[in-house]
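User: I would dearly like some help making sense of a protein record. This is the protein in question:
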Amino acid sequence: MQLFHEDKNTVTPTDGIKSLKFDSKNHKYALSLAGNTKVGRIATWSTLMGDYTYKGMTGVLKDITGTCGNCGACKAGCYVRSSYRFPGVVHSQAVNTWGLRHNLPKVESDLAEQIKRRHVSIVRINQSGELENDEQMAMWCRLASAFPEVKFYIYTKMYQIAEKFLKDGLVPENFTINYSVWHDVGVKEYERVKDFPNVKAFVYDDGVDMCLPTKCYCPAYKVIGKSGKAKMDHSVTCETCGLCITSKVKVIACHDH
């Protein structure tokens, strides 16, 4: 099922998403606790991928833009794209995106209440989407500080935001920042902060110009045959692996998939 008509700068939903409503005054923001075959039973937060303008949704979500202002390196191969065949996925991520931009205190309060009530142990920030500004980063740091027993982690290419918070001592120990590195994108930025214990590099490997070599690979993706493309090993999840969350490994690569 193709949900969107996509061109260079816009994504237009089909009729399936137009019936989904959002009460911006009373909505209860929440981490997804459903998990999936990749992350396992990890709580996740997601916002709209890419730098597209999403056309066709109603109300305050009309013409909302994606959150990835630094997505040039990975836009074409974004793994989130396949999940957008489900109208509910796009709508929920649009709602989260709007909430962060227009009602950040309520997002923070709702998530804190959920984490406390549901005894969440691991939170992956931005399973889809990206940090947009200092205010959002500060919110995640406050939540991590408020729940030191919970492991928070993120993959990001918003290197300037991450570096500022790291060097100002605002990132708690239970919040791991994985610098997304694509070829030479992000290498020098990672080098500036690599000595922080809660910073790692997550390196994309498509066989070309891997500028941060490592022998440690994400075990969830394995190259089979001569195609160079990796297939997911469904017996491995982020929950059971922990390389990006709790290990002392600093540079982790992932095969193109």
Residues 87-102 form the longest helix (16 residues). The chain has six helices and twelve strands. The mean pLDDT is 88. The first strand starts at residue 4 and ends at 6.
